[in-house]
Specification:
Radius of gyration: 20 Å
Low-confidence stretches: 1-11, 13-25
Order of helices and strands: HHHHHEEEEEEEE
Largest sheet: 5 strands, antiparallel
Number of helices: 5
Helix content: 25-40%
Number of strands: 8
Number of domains: 2
Mean pLDDT: 78
Strand order of the largest sheet: 1-2-3-4-7
Shape: extended
Amino acid sequence: MDLREYAIKELPKVENMEDKACIAHNALREIQLLVTEDSKIGKTITKAMDDWNESYDNEMQKRMNDHILKMVDLFSEEGHSGTSASYAISRIKRLLCRKPLGPLTGEDDEWDEWSTDKYQNRRFSEVFKDGKAGKGYWMKGKVFSDDGKTWYTNKNSRVYIDFPFDVPDEPEYIDLSKTR
């Protein structure tokens, strides 16, 4: 399978994302695969995106595809090789998903009081603590599924953390259908 065929096959997966807030994250993951196979990605991806756009009647999806292509064009102008592209994409992915590049310190200046004696971390909005001296927790540290297809968070998703805390790229995924 050549790069063009691969792009046409893989890029539509962006449409099926459950977490719309991270659409750029998934697009960049696909771009990373493409970059490592072909350093001259601009024309190849343009053709793949044109073919992809023709398969959609949805104007919003076509606009999203155009936005993704603009990101690819800008990225390709930097001339990254496989190694530097992988590093840059990993950093961009974290920033687009609003994850910090370095560890959370837990220092007082990292917190906002959002309710009486309830604090939220300024650098990573999924981290909270109860009380000024309370223990920090990642509210989406565990994600559950009952069938391996649909995933959700609940009160058991909370993971207590120690500082400094390096936010993982992904939470822990727990398929409850496999533990029964």
